[in-house]
Specification:
Blueprint (H helix, E strand, L loop, with lengths): L5 E5 L2 E9 L2 E12 L2 E2 L1 E5 L2 E6 L2 E4 L2 H17 L5
């Protein structure tokens, strides 16, 4: 589905990485929460945040948001240039 990108996943979170040459990658888009193994969109409806994929949705609870935030931070650190 994403032939030009590498997918990485941890728990219920995932992201796409784009090759940028010399064996390095950069984040393509932003990390996402997964529903049934599929990338979701985060929406706000009736004052609440949700992760949505097609007709399925999960509330963006504090625990899910924390999991996504930790994943994004760890991924960003892993993508820093090696010294």
């Amino acid at each position: 589905m994403y032939a030009n990108y590498v997918g990485v996943r941890r728990g219920n979170c995932a992201a796409l990485l784009a090759p940028v040459g010399s064996g390095t990658f950069e984040l393509y888009g932003q990390p996402a929460y997964l529903i049934a193994g599929n990338f979701t969109a985060r929406i706000r409806r009736n004052g609440r945040d949700w992760f949505v994929w097609k007709k399925e949705k999960l509330e963006a609870s504090e625990a899910r948001l924390a999991e996504l935030k930790d994943f994004a931070a760890d991924l960003a650190n892993a993508l820093l240039p090696a010294a």
